[in-house]
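Notebook entry, structure prediction.
Reason for the run: the old model in the group folder had no record of what sequence produced it. Starting over properly, with the input documented here first.
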Amino acid sequence: MPCDHPQTQGMTELMNKIICNSLSNYPKFDVKKDELFDFSKALKQLQKNKDTIPQNCRKRTSCSEKTI
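New structure, fully documented this time:
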């Protein structure tokens, strides 16, 4: 996993990935061969990841407290 900025917990990278996927799956000349990007699925995944951020913060905080 790429180095995530501690304040965003990887949300910036995830949004960049969603945007890149949506652009790379943009319908081209032959639409029959192209798979359309499922934006609602991507947003559900984003919400799922967003819901886990507080849990990840608690885990990281407890880990850093143990090392101090």
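Summary: DSSP finds two helices and no strands in the chain.
The old model has been moved to the deprecated folder.
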